């Protein structure tokens, strides 16, 4: 991929590769790569997952679309070793390896406290003056071994390279070291370069300190002293000081040279000192210093004032007068037009001045392409590049190629990325580290992970320094294909190199480590990150702690939580929930209780269930009463006492089957002056009923009769449902009758639980009477009640007999007649002659269907006709109902009863795939 196909074919032929031993094989390989690139070009919005880099943000997912999968499949057919070898050869032609070596030395030099102080002072944005006479002994020695030939051009190249990497400290070190070397003297150009670096880094106070100490340096007197100061203050954004110094020079009979004049003029334009610009420009003209640089700066002066028409007129006048005009001046106007969205006019000027034969048009082409790319006009940039390349032989430099490739990679236009990298390689354009990084990212995105990994592992051979973008891509792609250990290795290496991935990428790896159960590595990763002041996202901590808690390592989760507390990082509400539930499962309710209070102090409100779980755990420990009331005291001191807090504790004590504790809290609430509400009464009543202390529940209910003027439906319903759960059917029925006598309409719950209990007790006559009562009070049959009746009908015909007998005795024909037919059909007393659709419709006339209803219907149909049962299963799925264990079990049992063993086993396999298992009864049949 991305290699010269001709060279690749030749390489394969020379090595006698078995896959490419003939010209036909070579053609197939070329065709394959072209097809793969075309397929990759269709990757678009399905890509997801973010990572951020030096110039733009990329969305990334190695398997984000079918096109990406196709690209990856086809690309893998090309031998990876051939691709790796070809790229290694290209990468080794890079011409900035020496510069990388210089900056590696400068970055790694440690010269005791002085150097450390320099670093700290620089990192404080120049708030503390910097010493410049620091003897960098280790760097000095290492740089001397390189036998560098120091010239103005070489020093400028080094400083420019460091500036592109924003490595200000190393640039200062090199500048200081170079100035001390015998045979080399800093020039105005090198001083101007270091001034620009400091200015670009916005280290203004540091730069001003540099200038104030400038005269103390040994090399200060080897250049024009005043010129350098004027340039320094001009570049530092202090043009008024520069002008004052210039005035003093003129008073002393001194003057600036051409270089310094132009630096001052450019600074005045940059700082919008427009009036002073004309004065200095006139001085330049009077001294005969006017040249193409002057013209470019004056064009910038017009453009900064948005006087684009005057700028264009000025440029045309220069050409008309025969004055020197270069592509740099044209590029200033083209750039200004693009910034005003006047791309059409800018493009016309590019072509017009190219036709006029203006020199150095390459700078215009470069700016034009850059502006097109930044505006997202990638097609225009590509078309312009290809036209100029074919007509004029124009070849952009590596930087411009990189800019275009990065944007294309962001847009997932992998085919064009492939073509441009091939152009660079075939054009023998020496790649820089950005080119190499982008190439690795491309391989990741194209699915050629083995190639990317091999190049990454071989990075020392050609001096590749991966950036954060590469690390993000590699980690994402390894997580995507399950190579978690490899992703972990890459992330650790990136952090060792000082690169910190985006939180999203970190979270992706963390999620993968947790999912794979690699918790020790996850723990190392979090500690490693925190030691380097990298704070993972809340999601990462939450995922890690939750996983530790769910794998019975709640103590480790608590240690991570404690570390977060130490650095004043507030854990999320979900994290607290995981920890509290984990300690509850470990029967360490005292720790869970402390965490419950702590989470409220951190601003998180717990839910009622969390209180209940903690209280239940405390009640299973030693000294439960003490533990319970300690938590209550802590809670009351943590938050203002309220009815809700007391209700939470009554609720928890009731679930712990400690109604005595619930009653004490209930009485404490009354003593504190907070009147219990209906919910308080309900919770207290439930606490007695859950413990099956029926007499206490009845006594409390009677007390409520005395205290309350009206006993509402909620209290009656709570009592009746609780009595049903305690199997006290007779008492429950009595209270239902009392409820009705007082004019309170029973809730659906009352009827549902009573009918269920009566059917379980075989008291079908009373159950049928309750169904009739439902009709009288105007209530409908709920799904729960209807399902209970159908289920009982499947088990015994007695319900249907009671139904018929009571209806005949009363000679009743009502809306419940259809329900009676269904009960008869399910009990086998009435022959089913309806098809599936009609049977469903019949049930829907009586009550709403749910999954349980369908299961009952399938079980009933499977007794006579498995085809009808399977058809109902399909119809159920089409309607959006999710089959459960009992659905599949009914079908398996039906097939077995009909002797269709092979089909039954096939359905058992389906069950297993869905995560379900046959019931014990069905297992016996199997």
UniProtKB/TrEMBL annotation:
Alphabetical keyword list: Repeat
InterPro entries, alphabetized: Mito_RNA_Proc_CCM1 (IPR051114), PPR_rpt (IPR002885), TPR-like_helical_dom_sf (IPR011990)
One family name in Pfam for this protein: PPR_1
Superkingdom assignment: Eukaryota
One of the record's GO molecular function terms: mRNA binding
GO biological process, one term: RNA processing
GO cellular component, one term: mitochondrion
Mapped PPR repeat ranges: 291-325, 397-431, 432-466, 467-501, 572-606, 642-676, 712-746, 884-918
UniProt family annotation: Belongs to the PPR family. P subfamily.
NCBIfam families: PPR
Protein name: Pentatricopeptide repeat-containing protein
């Amino acid at each position: 991929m991305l290699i010269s196909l001709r060279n690749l074919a030749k390489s394969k032929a020379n090595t006698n590769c078995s896959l490419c031993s003939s010209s036909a094989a070579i053609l197939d390989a070329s065709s394959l790569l072209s097809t793969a690139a075309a397929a990759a070009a269709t990757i678009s919005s399905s890509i997801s997952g973010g990572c951020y880099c030096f110039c733009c943000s990329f969305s990334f997912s190695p398997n984000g679309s079918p096109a990406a999968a196709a690209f990856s499949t086809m690309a893998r057919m090309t031998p990876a070793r051939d691709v790796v070898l070809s790229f290694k050869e290209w990468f080794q032609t890079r011409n900035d390896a020496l510069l990388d070596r210089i900056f590696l030395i400068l970055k790694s030099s440690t010269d005791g406290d002085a150097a450390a102080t320099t670093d700290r002072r620089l990192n404080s944005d120049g708030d503390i003056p910097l010493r410049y006479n620091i003897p960098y002994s280790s760097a000095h020695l290492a740089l001397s071994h390189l036998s560098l030939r120091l010239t103005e051009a070489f020093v400028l190249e080094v400083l420019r390279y460091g500036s592109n990497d924003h490595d200000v400290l190393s640039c200062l070190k090199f500048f200081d070291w170079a100035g001390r070397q015998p045979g080399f003297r800093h020039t105005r150009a090198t001083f101007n370069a270091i001034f620009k670096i400091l200015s670009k880094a916005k280290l203004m106070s540091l730069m001003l300190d540099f200038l104030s100490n400038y005269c103390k340096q040994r090399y200060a007197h080897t250049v024009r002293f005043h010129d350098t100061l004027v340039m320094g203050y001009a570049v530092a954004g202090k043009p008024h000081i520069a002008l004052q110094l210039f005035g003093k020079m003129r008073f002393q009979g001194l003057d600036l040279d051409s270089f310094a004049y132009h630096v001052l003029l450019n600074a005045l334009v940059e700082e919008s000192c427009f009036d002073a610009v004309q004065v200095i420009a006139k001085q330049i003209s009077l001294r005969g210093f006017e040249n193409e640089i002057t013209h470019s700066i004056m064009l910038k002066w017009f453009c900064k004032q948005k006087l684009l028409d005057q700028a264009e007129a000025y440029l045309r006048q220069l050409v008309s007068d025969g004055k020197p005009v270069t592509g740099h001046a044209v590029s200033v106007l083209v750039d200004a037009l693009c910034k005003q969205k006047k791309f059409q006019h800018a493009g016309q000027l590019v072509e017009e001045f190219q036709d006029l034969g203006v020199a150095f048009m390459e700078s215009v082409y470069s700016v034009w392409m850059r502006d097109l790319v930044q505006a997202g006009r990638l097609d225009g940039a590509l078309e312009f590049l290809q036209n100029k390349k074919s007509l004029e032989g124009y070849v952009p430099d590596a930087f411009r190629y990189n800019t275009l490739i990065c944007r294309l990679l962001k847009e997932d236009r992998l085919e064009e990325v492939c073509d441009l990298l091939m152009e660079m390689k075939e054009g023998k354009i020496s790649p820089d580290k950005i080119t190499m990084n982008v190439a690795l990212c491309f391989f990741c995105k194209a699915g050629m992970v083995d190639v990317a990994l091999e190049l990454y592992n071989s990075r020392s051979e050609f001096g590749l320094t991966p950036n954060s973008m590469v690390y993000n891509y590699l980690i994402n792609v390894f997580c995507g294909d399950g190579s978690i250990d490899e992703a972990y290795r890459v992330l650790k290496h990136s952090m060792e190199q000082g690169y910190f991935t985006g939180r999203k990428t970190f979270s992706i790896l963390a999620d993968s480590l947790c999912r794979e159960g690699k918790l020790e590595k996850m723990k190392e990763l979090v500690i490693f990150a925190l030691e380097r002041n990298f704070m993972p996202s809340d999601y990462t901590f939450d995922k890690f702690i939750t996983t530790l808690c769910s794998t019975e390592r709640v103590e480790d989760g608590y240690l991570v939580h404690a570390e977060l507390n130490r650095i004043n990082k507030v854990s999320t509400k979900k994290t607290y929930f995981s920890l509290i539930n984990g300690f509850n499962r470990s029967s360490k309710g005292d720790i869970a209780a402390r965490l419950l209070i702590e989470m409220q102090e951190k601003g998180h409100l717990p839910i009622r269930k969390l209180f209940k779980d903690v209280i239940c755990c405390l009640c299973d420990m030693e000294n439960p009463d003490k533990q319970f009331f300690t938590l209550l005291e802590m809670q009351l001191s943590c938050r203002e006492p309220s009815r809700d807090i007391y209700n939470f504790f009554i609720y928890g004590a009731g679930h712990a089957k400690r109604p005595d504790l619930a009653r004490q809290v209930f009485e404490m609430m009354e003593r504190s002056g907070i009147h219990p509400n209906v919910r308080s009464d309900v919770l207290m009543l439930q606490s007695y009923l859950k413990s099956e202390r029926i007499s206490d529940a009845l006594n409390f209910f009677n007390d409520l009769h005395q205290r309350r003027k009206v006993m509402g439906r909620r209290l009656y319903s709570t009592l009746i449902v609780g009595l049903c759960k305690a199997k006290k059917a007779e008492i429950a029925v009595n209270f239902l009758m009392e409820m009705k006598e007082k004019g309170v309409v029973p809730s659906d719950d009352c009827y549902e639980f009573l009918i269920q209990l009566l059917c379980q007790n075989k008291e079908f006559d009373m159950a049928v009477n309750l169904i009739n009562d439902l009709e009288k009070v105007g209530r409908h049959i709920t799904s729960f009640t209807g399902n209970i009746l159908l289920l009982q009908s499947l088990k015994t015909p007695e319900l249907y007999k009671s139904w018929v007998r009571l209806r005949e005795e009363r000679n009743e024909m009502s809306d419940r007649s259809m329900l009676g037919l269904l009960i008869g059909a399910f009990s086998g007393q009435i022959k089913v002659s309806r098809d599936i659709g009609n049977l469903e419709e019949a049930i829907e006339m009586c009550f709403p269907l749910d999954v349980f209803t369908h299961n009952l219907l399938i079980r009933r149909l499977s007794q006579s006709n498995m085809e009808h049962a399977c058809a109902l299963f399909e119809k159920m799925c089409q309607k959006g109902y999710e089959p459960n264990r009992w659905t599949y079990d009914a079908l398996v049992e039906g097939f077995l009863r009909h002797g269709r063993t092979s089909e039954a086993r096939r359905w058992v396999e389906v069950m297993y795939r869905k995560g379900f298992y046959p019931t014990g009864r069905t297992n016996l049949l199997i």
